[in-house]
Amino acid sequence: MTLFRGNVLDTPTSPFTGGSLRSHDDCGLLVRSGVIAARGPFEVLRAEHPDEPVLDLREGLLLPGMVDTHVHFPQVRVIGGLGLPLLDWLDRCALPEEMRLAEADYARSVARDFVAGLVDAGTTTALVFGAHYASAVDSMFEAADQWGLRVTTGLVTSDRLLPEPLLTTAERAHSESLDLATRWHGKGRLRYAVTPRFSLSASEAVLEACAAVMSEVPGSWFTSHVNENVHEIREVAALFDGAAYVDTYDRFGLVTPRSVLAHDVHPTDAELATLAERGAAVAHCPTSNAALGSGLFPLRRHVEAGVRVALGSDVGAGTGFSLFKEGLQAYFVQQLLGPAGMPLTSAHLLWLCTGAGADALGLAQDVGDLSVGKQFDAIWLLPEPGDPLAVGLANASSPDDALSKVFALGTSSDVGGVWVGGDQIASGRWRLPLHP
Ligand SMILES: [Zn+2]
């Protein structure tokens, strides 16, 4: 057992439904077998457990581990390709790189870069958009397993409109997906995600195969893209007899409480109603939406329709792994929407980066905040002395204000330690070797 001592900020209840920031200075968290066994004033816990080792993290802040609900593993090396709309960016930046992952050694090195990026950013749980090659997806699972991250991922499938080396058939997609799920689903902290790239590049036959894998792999997850770009939406409608984008998945039974659809920048009211009715979640990826000029995310319409929303970095169209940056950009977008926007507090932003993602991934019983009974998935923020974030935190007027400064100024380099299930997996400041 370890007794962690620190200044803890978390959001056990959604601020969208009345929750608020929970702040606890000099908090004690007693962690046994990776689970938070007790929480309270440090001195009280210390008196009850005088012999347990103490890890004193009072300098800085202790937050729940970040949950990224949309991030592409094969795109870590193409982050920063600015100046293009979605379909051009795919053709010129993303897809040429994704084809390189056919080569197993290359894919393995990309997986290492990718997982290091997640860990450094304090992301402890992620729904990872995989690769088009089964061997590359194996590399992703291996890397996540080695680091002990909570990762849900799978084979990306497409059978049209992409470069030929990225295409598969419905039969092959089905059998390779099942093979991968047999190897990895339920191993440690790993789960399988059925992942058609988007219905633009996935025919009815591939979507049917996806539905078959969903039913043959109990507890598997579903993820894809939806309503990202107006041109893309028109192309999808043309391929599916004018169907709404959400319906192209829904007609195959792929929109469920275990579905996370990325973007949804341009939904119709009917699509929002479908998402809410099915209990599906949306991964909002604000830096990606801005970088590709996709649009301003209608958060208020999602919330009012009862659609669950969490955050995704959407690396590599998104501009980095840090969910602090995504939270800040989400805040900017709502400000820019004026009266149609939804004003967000720092507590909303923390919820979107933690509890909302845990909920979208069906992991809310285990992670998302630092309550008793949850896994100790946590990050320690420790800005360099004199850094603007350190100055801001030292002069914050309240815990909510301190958290606003974290979102305004925080970066991956402020993450001083990361724990998953009680195990420390990296220490940003002191950089443990990248490959354990
Ligand atoms: Zn994406």
Concise synopsis of the structure shown:
The protein has helices at residues 42-48, 86-100, 104-120, 134-147, 170-184, 204-216, 230-239, 245-250, 269-278, 286-291, 299-305, 323-336, 346-353, 355-360, 388-394, 399-409; strands at 2-10, 22-32, 35-41, 54-64, 66-72, 123-129, 150-153, 156-157, 190-196, 221-226, 259-263, 281-284, 308-311, 378-381, 415-420, 423-426. With 436 residues, the protein is of the alpha/beta class. The protein binds zinc ion.
Properties at a glance:
disordered C terminus; 16 strands; nine-stranded parallel beta sheet; globular; 436 residues; alpha/beta; 16 helices; binds zinc ion
Topology:
Elements: E1 2-10, E2 22-32, E3 35-41, H1 42-48, E4 54-64, E5 66-72, H2 86-100, H3 104-120, E6 123-129, H4 134-147, E7 150-153, E8 156-157, H5 170-184, E9 190-196, H6 204-216, E10 221-226, H7 230-239, H8 245-250, E11 259-263, H9 269-278, E12 281-284, H10 286-291, H11 299-305, E13 308-311, H12 323-336, H13 346-353, H14 355-360, E14 378-381, H15 388-394, H16 399-409, E15 415-420, E16 423-426
Parallel strand pairs: 1-4, 5-6, 6-7, 7-9, 8-9, 9-10, 10-11, 11-12, 12-13
Antiparallel strand pairs: 1-2, 2-3, 4-14, 14-15, 15-16
The structure holds zinc ion (ZN).
